[in-house]
Amino acid sequence: MITPDLLVAPEAPKGFMAWLEQPHVKWAVPLPLLLALAPLIWLFFRSTWKELDREAVTYRERLREAGSEVDYRPLIALGSARSSSRSRNTTAAPTRRSTRRSSSRTCASTRRATPAGS
Q1: What is the C-alpha separation between 9 and 26, in angstroms, rounded?
Q2: What's this model's pTM, rounded to 2 decimal places?
Q3: From CA 18, how far away is CA 26, in angstroms rounded?
Q4: Burial of 60 (0-12, 13-18, 19+ CB in 10 A)
Q5: Which of 73, 98, 107, 117 could form a disulfide linkage to 94, CB 3.0–4.6 angstroms apart?
């Protein structure tokens, strides 16, 4: 059972942490956090990124030797990213228009009455 005291908004923070509730402070808080974490991320992934760069350079050299100057991998990666985002959107709920159209076909009370002379 929901009591009226549960429906009341929580009290605003007071004291030292109240400054975090200011909008101009809230949007800026992630920036120093990201700057602090960036060196750790770089140290962790540095060897992986170097290896990927080496593989990409050797692949492009082999393409050039075979006579092809175009590397289609970035284009394919972009296409696969777009198709995966489209496939996620197909599972979304139907739009209001399509819902209205389908419900008007099934419900006789929503159909317009036609004049007897037409």
Answers
A1: 20
A2: 0.43
A3: 11
A4: middle
A5: 98
CB of 46 within 8 A of CB of 58? no
Query: What is the rounded end-to-end Cα distance, in angstroms, of the chain?
Result: 57
Q: Say which residues have a Cβ less than 8 Å from residue 84's Cβ, sequence separation at least 6.
A: none
**Single-letter amino acid code for the residue at 58:** T
| Cβ-contact 55, 49 below 8 angstroms | no
Q: Scanning the structure block, which residue is given the tokens 């007071």?
A: 14
Residue 34 reports pLDDT greater than 50: yes
Share of the chain above pLDDT 70, in %: 64
Q: Where are the alpha helices (DSSP H) in 1-118?
A: 23-26, 30-66, 73-89, 96-106
Residue type present at position 71: D
Write down the residue that tokens 């289609």 correspond to: 72
